[in-house]
Write a structure and sequence with these properties.
Elements lengths: L6 H11 L3 H19 L8 H11 L7
Helix pairs in contact: 1-3, 2-3
């Protein structure tokens, strides 16, 4: 099993994905999957990265800082 990433590490990783169209599409797909699995709807105009980080943090997918 790979070690969990910290919030900061994950944020840097997600921001790097935003730099390309393919990465942005991947982030949007991830947010769609998270919403479908009970993550709720991302408020319109809110950060895609923040939505993903909150989902992952609440579910214990990130290491403690």
């Amino acid at each position: 099993m790979t070690p969990k990433k910290t919030l900061r590490q994950r944020e840097i990783e997600l921001r790097a994905l935003m730099a390309t169209e393919a990465g942005l599409a991947e982030l949007q797909e991830m947010a769609t999957r998270y919403a479908a699995s009970g993550g709720g709807v991302r408020p319109e105009g809110r950060s895609l990265i923040t939505y993903i980080l909150v989902y992952e943090r609440v579910r214990g997918l990130l290491a403690s800082d």
